[in-house]
Amino acid sequence: MDRDDIDEVIDAFVDAAEYALDAGFEVPEIHAAHGYLLHEFLSPMSNGRDDEYGGDFEGRTKLLREVCEGVREVWPDEKPIFVRISATDWLPDRESWDVAQSARLASELAEIGVDFLDVSSGGIHPDQELPRTGPGYQAQYAETIREVLAEDGQTLSGDTLAAGSDEIAVGTVGGITEATHAEALVGNERADAVLLAREHLRDPYFTLHAGRELDAENAPEWPDQYKRA
Ligand SMILES: Cc1cc2nc3c(=O)[nH]c(=O)nc-3n(C[C@H](O)[C@H](O)[C@H](O)COP(=O)(O)O)c2cc1C
């Protein structure tokens, strides 16, 4: 990608955010994980550039930072912006992206006005050494990033997303299927929020069931039409 290609990509992210806003979405999530383009720039495994968008940490993170800055300019201050990252490339035996760099990135994204980091992992290289997967197997990454941010006072101080502030909330995803597990991850301060994918496919009413199971004050209501049943 030459300079023009890079500008085109940044503009495309900004345009996409504007379309999303027009369409009524509340949150854009910028995807910088799982081997997609922005991850390819972040990781020294894939970024072999010798210009200002490669090389050291600042160079490799420059495109993502510029995309986030561009989106923040058009996205309303009171609405949050999420970024998904792969916390580690799972390639410990070679120069690659790791949790320490993710924590440093989180801090810089917080300053740009990103509000929430959705922490996943892997996806850049077929040699990746998969960890033992299972319930909450990626929570360790969110927890470490949170701890580093806490040292700089950049973790969330309240229990709501403070859009546009210098704080950033850190979420975990992966193998979480039970309400009590999700609650424990947040309650034990391993993550500020929990994201679920496949469980919502298995049980589209997961959120309502979880709200009832946890006796949550702000549990969502069943649709009116279902109440008689
Ligand atoms: C069918 C399917 C498609 C997915 N597509 C994407 C995707 O496009 N982008 C992404 O970041 N994650 C994708 N994921 C990963 C999920 O977002 C999530 O991170 C992963 O499934 C782990 O969470 P879970 O155990 O709650 O499902 C996909 C997962 C599934 C099952």
| First-to-last CA distance | 57 Å
Q: What is the alpha-carbon Rg in Å?
A: 18 Å
Structural domain tally: 2
Structural class: alpha/beta
Q: What about the largest sheet?
A: 5 strands, parallel
- Low-pLDDT residue intervals, each spanning 5 or more residues: none
- Along the chain, the helix and strand elements come as HEHHEHEHEHEHH
E-strand count: 5
Rounded average pLDDT: 93
Can you put this structure into words, describing what you see?
The protein contains 8 helices and 5 strands. It is α/β, with parallel strands linked by helices and 229 residues long. It is globular, with a radius of gyration of 18 Å. It folds into 2 domains: 3-194, Aldolase class I (TIM Barrel), CATH 3.20.20.70; 197-229, no CATH class. The structure holds flavin mononucleotide. Residues 31, 33-34, 84, 120, 173-176, 196-199 line the site of flavin mononucleotide.
Write the layout of secondary structure elements.
Elements: H1 3-22, E1 29-32, H2 37-42, H3 57-74, E2 82-86, H4 99-112, E3 116-120, H5 139-151, E4 169-173, H6 179-187, E5 193-195, H7 198-202, H8 206-213
Parallel strand pairs: 1-2, 2-3, 3-4, 4-5
In a few lines, what is going on in this structure?
The chain has 229 residues and is of the alpha/beta class. The protein is built from eight helices and five strands.
Defining traits:
TIM Barrel; 2 domains; 8 helices; 41% helix; globular
